[in-house]
Amino acid sequence: MNAENEQSKSSGKKYGYIRVSSDKQNLARQIEEMNKQQLNYIFQDKQSGKSLDRPELQKMLSILSEGDTVVVLSVDRLARNTKDLISLVDLFRGKGINFISLKENIDTSTPTGIFICTILGALAELEREYIRERQRQGIAIAKTQKKYKGRRERKIPNFEEMTKRVRSGNMSVEEASKLLCISRSTYYRRLKKLETLDNEVIDF
User: Fold this and answer.
1) Which amino acids are annotated catalytic?
2) Which residue segments constitute the domains of the chain, with CATH numbers given?
3) Which of 93-97, 118-122, 123-127, 199-203 has the lowest mean pLDDT?
4) What are phi and psi of 72, to 5 degrees?
5) What span, in angstroms and rounded, lies between the C-alpha atoms of 67 and 7?
């Protein structure tokens, strides 16, 4: 990497992201901690972390660009499960964005931070493989008992909301696919099905 690119990557903005689970909870302590980090802006959500469809999180994702840095106090403020966390970190790294979690001492601009994220990704993949193996075993048992009725289409949470952001130009298909934890081909297949449903005419 040449000096010009290095300077470009280091001149990005630094954003904080904080969250509590409901309107009744107070963000004051998190804001106080974040004010020590010399941030350009702090995005604040008062919503459960079970879903990535949070207004301030999505607003932050829509403006991030190469060289920027995202800072959280702990990873559970950003995501409540490993799958969502890895999806976001992969999205950050793909766009050249650094990620810092103060409590866990994660900084993806360092070799140690990258290593930790790699381990988290490996653990998430291992967890998915265990789930697939249990599914295969369950299907095999169901087939022997003649109870297997074929694979049902998996529901993809937040698909329509992410599609709205893609259509408005605030997010690319690749970014939406990563956040939804699906492949681009699956995204386009579900999009085609959604558009077909939208265009259906019901006769009365």
Assistant:
1) 21
2) 12-151 (3.40.50.1390), 159-198 (no CATH)
3) 199-203
4) -130, 160
5) 9
Question: What is the distance between the alpha carbons of residues 166 and 61, in angstroms, rounded to a whole number?
Answer: 12
pLDDT single digits (tens) 111-128: 888 888 778 767 766 776
0.85 surpassed by pTM? no
The amino acid that residue 150 corresponds to is G
Q: Which amino acid is at 58?
A: Q
Token representation of residue 170 = 């605030």
- 170 contacts 176 by C-beta, under 8 angstroms: no
Give bridge partners of residue 9 from the DSSP assignment: none
Give the per-residue SS3 of the chain: CCHHHHHHHHCCCEEEEEEECCCCCCCHHHHHHHHHHCCCEEEEEECCCCCCCCHHHHHHHHHCCCCCEEEECCHHHHCCCHHHHHHHHHHHHHCCCEEEECCCCEECCCHHHHHHHHHHHHHHHHHHHHHHHHHHHHHHHHHHCCCCCCCCCCCCCCHHHHHHHHHCCCCCHHHHHHHHCCCHHHHHHHHHHHHHHHCCCCCC
Count of CA atoms in the C-beta half-sphere (13 A) of 34: 25
CA distance 188 to 173: 9
